[in-house]
Amino acid sequence: MKKSSTKTRVRYSETDQMGVVYHGNYAQFFEMGRTEWLRSLGVTYKDMELSGIMLPVISLKCNFIKSALYDDVLTITTFLKKKPMVKIEFDYEIKNQNEELVCTGNSVLAFMNSKSMKPTKCPDYLLKSLDF
């Protein structure tokens, strides 16, 4: 299992009137996790796009367990459990500064050729970075 963790502090603009993180922001937290997961392998979205690969999200799931609050420090842990092919699937755990599980999630992204807009296989350089 390949995993990476990144931290973020909840900003006021990410909360509702009660100081609770608005549910729509979790997709952005997951994106932060994916971006940093790729970066930990020496790959960036920018590099992938320059090489003609796009990664649209085709599925997103979030299970809310505990409210995240304004000024909490969240740790987003991103997991890759299986070899990517035409799709890449990530699992997530978000914990607060007290190590309490806030939410879990899953997203599936498809490798797309940016010129043809058709699905394509995972780039070899990413597979090599993953030791697959």
Automatic annotation (TrEMBL):
The keyword Chloroplast does not apply. Keywords: Hydrolase. It comes from the Bacteria. Coiled coil: none annotated. One of its GO terms (molecular function) is fatty acyl-CoA hydrolase activity. Pfam families: 4HBT. Residues 18-103 form the Thioesterase domain. PROSITE patterns: 4HBCOA_THIOESTERASE. PANTHER family: 4-HYDROXYBENZOYL-COA THIOESTERASE FAMILY MEMBER, NOVEL THIOESTERASE SUPERFAMILY DOMAIN AND SAPOSIN A-TYPE DOMAIN CONTAINING PROTEIN (0610012H03RIK). Belongs to the 4-hydroxybenzoyl-CoA thioesterase family. This is Acyl-CoA thioesterase. It comes from Polaribacter aestuariivivens.
